[in-house]
Amino acid sequence: MQQKSEYAELRCFGPFAGWMKEYVEQNRALGHKYNVDAVYLMQFDAYCMQKSVTATALTQELLEGWFVKRPYEADASHHTRMRVLRKFAKFLRNNGVQAPAAFHPLPHLVTSFTPYIFTREEIVRLLAAADNVRQNGHSPLVGLTLPLLFRVLYCCGLRVSEVCQLRNEDVDLERGTLTILDAKGGKDRLVPMSDSLRQLCVEYSAVPVLRAFGSAYFFPSVDGGRYASSTIYDRFREFLWNAGISHGGRGNGPRLHDLRHTFAVHTLDDWARAGKDLYVCLPILSTYLGHKDLLSTQKYLRLTPQAYPVLLGAFSESFSCVFPEVGL
Q: From its phi and psi, is residue 287 left (phi > 0), alpha (psi between -120 and 50) or beta?
């Protein structure tokens, strides 16, 4: 197995900088990646400097100011931001630093968002829009990279961060596999590709302009590094528009991550139509997606009877006693 990707650098300069670095180092020593939490700690560090905080004391007033929900901040982001600082406050107090001793329980995070499951015809239109992406002098490779990148997203059900981080050595063109390193939950996994997708990757890798570019990343950005997830999302919105697929606005989807949901649903639908036992197949899909358990996979299955009657019937027959709420 190849070496895991490096941890995100923690850059802090305020009164809690030393404690933040120690806190993050302790968590990483326990095997946690702690990159997302580190970002929130750096944001809190900047907030302290903005408020001209100089004393190494986490006051109730400072904490409550940080906990105020920001305009347009997603509930999940606000919830995570509070959780990270509460845990850091506990760490400070345990080490003799002034910090609030007690908290009310965090409010239960409830999400009513329903993933958008693309129809197969919509996927065809979306990929056709990617094929017609406009090239320009600033991004000479987009017409080459983006059509395949979006096919890998859908056909392999990858997270956008996973496809952006793919290096050339992670793509085995002989075996037709992708090595996903240090994904969500710190997991590594091997993802097989279909024969047709493997062949597209072979043809893509042989293009002279790409080989001359000399990037370590399989899908290089204009500077030879990797694409930012936000860049891929911007292109996704562009492709949706060109494909005539409506978008409900911020937070209402379709989201880029819904391609992963769609892969899961389409795969199970194919298996159901082929008469395969979904009780046996679901753990295979869960492993392929890199989920920690079957419940994580079950959350991807937001179906409508009109679109997937065969799959719903097969799933209800196999799992009605386990996941009675699926599809209802």
A: alpha
